[in-house]
Amino acid sequence: MAGLNLRFTDEELEALRERAAAEGRSMQAFAHDAVMSAINEHSRLFDEAAEHVLKVSEELNRRLA
């Protein structure tokens, strides 16, 4: 499995530590899940935008075909 090193300020690291502890999780697990959530949200937003563009331009595309 590949690894990744991230740099945080002291304040960011403390906030991460506190948040992970509040959820009873390791900092690594908390950070991993946060990154994966961000990736999934980006993909979802992209898919919604693409679907919207296709729907809005459906009539124009039909006439251009």
How many DSSP-defined strands?
0
Beta-strand content bin: under 5%
Tell me the major beta sheet: none
Work out the helicity level.
Answer: over 70%
Architecture overview:
This is Arc-like DNA binding domain-containing protein. With 65 residues, the protein is mainly alpha-helical. It has a domain at 28-65. It has 3 helices and no strands. α1 packs across α2. The longest helix is centred in the middle third of the chain and has 30 residues, at 27-56.
Briefly, what is this?
The protein has 65 residues and is an all-alpha fold. Helix content is 77%, strand content 0%.
Topology overview:
Layout: H1 10-22, H2 27-56, H3 58-64
Helix pairs in contact: 1-2
Question: Key features?
Answer:
65 residues; mainly alpha; 3 helices; 77% helix
